Amino acid sequence: MPRKPKALVVMDSDTLEDQFDAVRLRRLADLVDLERLLWTDTLDDPATVQVLEDVEILITSWGVPRLTEARLNKMPRLRAVFHCAGTVRSFVTDGFWERGILVANGADANAIPVAEFTFASILLAGKKAQFLAADARIHRSDWSYVSARGELGNTGRTIGVIGFSRVGRRVVRLLQQMQDVTCLVVDPYADPDEVTAAGGIPATMEDMLPRADTVSIHAPDLPETQNMIGAVELAAMKDHATLINTARGALVDTSALEAECKTGRLHAILDVTAPEPLPADSVLYDLPNVIITPHIAGSLGAETRRMADTALDELERYLAGEQLRAQVRLPDLGLSA
Questions:
Q1: Side-chain half-sphere CA neighbours of 138 within 13 A
Q2: Which residue in 56, 112, 271, 305 has a CA-CA distance of 20 to 30 Å to 299?
Q3: Catalytic residue (one of 149, 157, 248, 267)
Q4: What is the rounded average pLDDT for all residues in the chain?
Q5: Which residue of the set 194, 295, 303, 317 is catalytic?
């Protein structure tokens, strides 16, 4: 029987409970020598020194601490990390890459609920359902308030998608279910042929903004994308258009959004904000043309198990000497979340 590599699970206890039920824990134990489970603070516990010296594989998720040089030095045999979440930016360091440690993540699996949430938001935004539902609590005597939200309906709409990312391309494909809808995709790094194959039309920001009835953001949070939607971009959007942000709050200039939404000209659906949460006195909380949800588009509860499954699938490929499908490489971090 081949030797099982020693492995540790490093994540917070609530995440472990969500992501690894008894079935998944048994599957993990069948693949590796799972000597013990570790929480987030025990990588620095002197009592775990011997365990860390022997570990070859980490199974990580939310709560994993940054793998600093000091921590990596305690794990000289570490060869691979399988991350049961999205971005690895929070814990991967330069020393990680210098040691040639492999890392795979569950970003593709996490893109599924975000794309579903976005698609549902786009459909509802076409009829301003989210906003009219709030209006109904105030205007109780009749339905005359309906006309104040602009033209309603989803036929003949133009949807702007910013970022042909994992989530963005799923959204573009989901939009193909709608009748007579044009999808304009803004992403200078995307292959135009891939955009077209998914059902989108490559476009520039300048071309898309004044045409789109709904604009959905799916770009990564990078220095060059922060505040990419500011006063100029918001002013270019058509009256009654809806801005949807399920990516990162830093991509939108919050002050500019507050100023524009105060006029009532635009609508906004914000699952992410900058800062997060917004200050209690932010005007966005009180505007009837703004919907704010507490960062719920991504994987929650049982949805997170898809990322655990991705990690386990990748672990199986690694042990079989096969090419990983969800491997993250250093150059990827320049263009991904």
A1: 10
A2: 56
A3: 248
A4: 94
A5: 295
- The reply to whether 151 belongs to the active site is no
Pairing relationship of beta strands 214-217 and 290-292 according to DSSP bridges? unpaired
* Residue 163 near residue 219, CB atoms below 8 Å: yes
Q: How many residues does the chain have?
A: 337
Residue type, 262: K
Residue 49 binned pLDDT confidence (cut-offs 50, 70, 90): confident
**In this structure, what is the dihedral angle of CA atoms 8, 13, 17, 20, given to the nearest 10 degrees?**
-10
295 has catalytic annotation: yes
Q: What is the pLDDT at residue 333?
A: 78
SS3 content of the chain, % helix, strand, coil (to 5): 40, 15, 45
The DSSP bridge partners found for residue 162 are: 186, 217
The secondary structure of 234-278 as a DSSP string is: HHHSPTT-EEEE-S-GGGB-HHHHHHHHHTTS-EEEESS-SSSSP
5, 56 contact by CB (below 8 A) = yes
Q: Count CB atoms within 10 A of the CB of residue 299.
A: 23
Does 276 participate in catalysis according to the annotation?
yes
Structure-block tokens of residue 89: 């930016």
Dist. CA 129–CA 152, nearest whole Å: 9
Q: Kindly report the backbone phi and psi dihedral angles of residue 87, in degrees, each rounded to the nearest multiple of 5, phi listed first.
A: -60, 145
